[in-house]
Amino acid sequence: MTARVTIIGGGLAGLAAAESLSRFGANNVAIRLIESRRQTGGRAGSFHDSASGQTVDYCQHVAMGCCTNFIDFVRRMDLDRHFRVYDQLTFLHRSGSSRFAASRRIPPPLHLAGAFGRLSYLSWSQKCRVAYGVWRLMRTPESDLRQLTAKQWLIRNRQDDACIASFWDVILVSALGEHTRNAAADAAQKVILDGFASHPDASDVWVPAMPLSELFGIQATERIQRNGVDVVRGAPVRTVVRSDGPFQIRTAGEQQTADAVIAAVPWHQMAKIDWQMDNDRGQHWFTRFTSIPSSAITGIHLWLDRPITTLPHVVLVGTLAQWLFREPIAETKHHSTDDLIRETPVFYHQVVISGAVDIAGESKDALVSHVMQELRDFFPAARDAKLLRHRVVTDPNSVFSVTPQVQELRPATDTPVDGLFLAGDWVDTGWPSTMEGAVRSGRMAAARVAQRFGMTPSPLTPDLPPGRLYRWFSNSS
């Protein structure tokens, strides 16, 4: 018998669930993915800039080498060729620049010694503090970090305010989308150990080389459609009913039937669906997730008359701006003056600010002015650059706020309703709100559906294997 599965939500979690289930073939699983918007991809989306004709991502998304399931996901769909992979970061600070690159010749965690040593803006004592903090994270069981914020744990482990601001905040705020004063310590441990300390490839940076709307909204979606997935766009799900028998999924236009449902919608959207379940834990159980707070991320899009750096991306230290990304190819703007047609090159740059709650009350023009001054302070070429136009995009629900309290609220894949499963980066995957967490959640939900119908579930892609020396150093030894 063919199992009928409906996936509600076409973001990365929903796409990953559909891709995983589609491997079983149309004779075993009939999959329908319903997306409320006109395009799939969810928060990994883009907008059209009418002035240039460019398609621009709302906010720059990056993955890291430790994101094994996300990388496997894009490889299975032949999308990895649309990523640029970098094996080093450049930290730019008032006193100059520092190259952060893990050694491929020295076993972890000692492979980071040179990278830390090259952070010239840190004093020798601060470098020692950072090294001690990483070592303590390796030796601390995750259970000992619960109920602690990252900053609380760091202060308890000899990290002073200057060290936290100059190193830990620089890494963790961008990775978690939340400040260390609020972020859960166990989430910070995940970033530092899995993202840097455990494997030489973990800190590689994967940057999409095409707009996210093309990458996931079109190409990934077309791939799962070729695998037999029925994709329905522009159809918000209003009601999901379960009494005696299959699920009834109602949209504005029709009603559909499913034997299993994967709800792959964000935490703040769960209560917008009327969950009419056959037990007392229906709507009330789902609405509790509206108490999960969100954290904003701002993308500041700048079109300049010249490039201000030759680097593809830069991590900024001690500034409001956290990341700068540069599009290597300039567009050409044509305009006429009398009978003369002139061509003006236009260079696109994007600044990313995570955990953007601190700038919520600032006007967009004031924010752009502030950021442009920071860029002029860091990049000599920016001092004479002309800002041709700009756009500020802030998503107040970019990620969930990964506080210790929220970590306790994150649900498992299973729900109290038989046959209904959850997916989304907010589900308890062991990862913070990342593309990796989204893909893992979709695959985890797909595995539970497969088990339900007597099929062998597809396993998660294993993490990068830590070396023997790392295991000896760490608490896992």
List keywords for this structure.
EC 1.3.5.5, alpha/beta, Amino_oxidase, five-stranded parallel β-sheet, 3 domains, eight-stranded mixed β-sheet, Flavin_amine_oxidase, 30% helix, 22 strands, globular, Polyamine Oxidase, Chain A, domain 2, FAD/NAD(P)-binding domain, 477 residues, oxidoreductase activity, 13 helices
Integer tally of domains? 3
Principal-axes geometry comes out as globular
Query: What's the CATH first level of the largest domain?
Result: Alpha Beta
Rg over CA atoms:
23 Å
Short description:
This protein has 477 residues and is of the alpha/beta class.
What does this structure look like?
A hairpin with a 2-residue loop joins strand 7 (89-93) and strand 8. The chain has 13 helices and 22 strands. Strands 7, 8, 16, 17, 18, 19, 20 and 21 form an eight-stranded mixed sheet that branches. The protein has a five-stranded parallel sheet with strand order 10-2-1-14-22, with helices on one face. The chain has a four-stranded mixed sheet with strand order 13-12-11-15, with no helix packed on it. It has helices at residues 12-22, 68-76, 113-117, 124-139, 150-156, 161-176, 185-197, 212-226, 283-287, 364-378, 404-409, 435-452, 468-473, and strands spanning 3-8, 29-34, 46-49, 54-57, 63-64, 83-86, 89-93, 96-100, 205-208, 230-232, 237-241, 247-251, 255-258, 260-263, 274-276, 294-304, 313-316, 323-326, 331-337, 340-354, 387-400, 420-422. It is an alpha/beta fold. It is globular. The protein has three domains: 3-45 and 211-292 and 402-452, FAD/NAD(P)-binding domain (3-Layer(bba) Sandwich); 100-203; 294-400, Polyamine Oxidase, Chain A, domain 2, CATH 3.90.660.
